[in-house]
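Q: Convert this sequence to structure tokens.
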Amino acid sequence: MYIATLIAADLPQGEVSATRDRLDAAGCVPVATDWLEPGVACDLTFARDPAAARAALEGQGIDVVVQPAEHRRKKLIVADMDSTMITVECIDELADYAGIKAEVAAVTEAAMRGELDFEQALDARVALLKGLDESVIDRCLAERVTIMPGARALVRTMRAHGVTAILVSGGFTRFAEPVAREIRFDRAIANVLEVADGKLTGTVTKPIVDSATKLATLSEAMLEFGLMREETLAVGDGANDLAMITQAGLGVAYHAKPIVAQAAGARIDHGDLSALLYAQGYKRSEWVL
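A:
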């Protein structure tokens, strides 16, 4: 059996009925309807052809996650940080303190779209920060870094149900570690900004955390905890998240760049990260905030 989870800030009964009709017309054989949160999230269980279901439900203006019913509740989440678990790209915000945000942000955007080599783009951007006072890092963390709506509920709820949560970022440990503590990830993996005499050197410690690192983190955690692929969730927004997203049991493109949105098994384009709790069948009463 399969489940299509419909999620929206305002999800009317009529939309659910119309979606069920679309599944029926596509030959998916809908068999049950279950509201996870009245007016917000609803499950439609159907018997066959998830590919036809995804095609039939595309473009409704709401978030729809289609997946097998079995192993729906995941046992591992591996998540990106910048523009996923937090609302900003930290390197762009650091660059703002140096007066070069527009220049750096343009490179970040191109890298996240998959148009540039990630390591080369990271080295080029970090080099522009050479000489910036180390104290700016803590100032940026306090003034600019905001947790993404739904992130705390997602990770804290999953961990309360025995899930392992790993934050893996192409950004920097000075941001990833406090963010991970706040959201309550089990561990954080990120790049190390190098500092000398209280100033950024314009370099990061090698090897860098990149797409391959993110995929390896997912694979190694599966081995560590004896998990099947179907028991894992990966979420991110940029091209360097694509490898882990396509290999996870539920790979989610979160408000993602086109290259990621097109390849991911699931997309959240409208709602916040709490949508991934509904996608796993958690009702609002089960959330941990």
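The first helix runs from residue 13 to 25.
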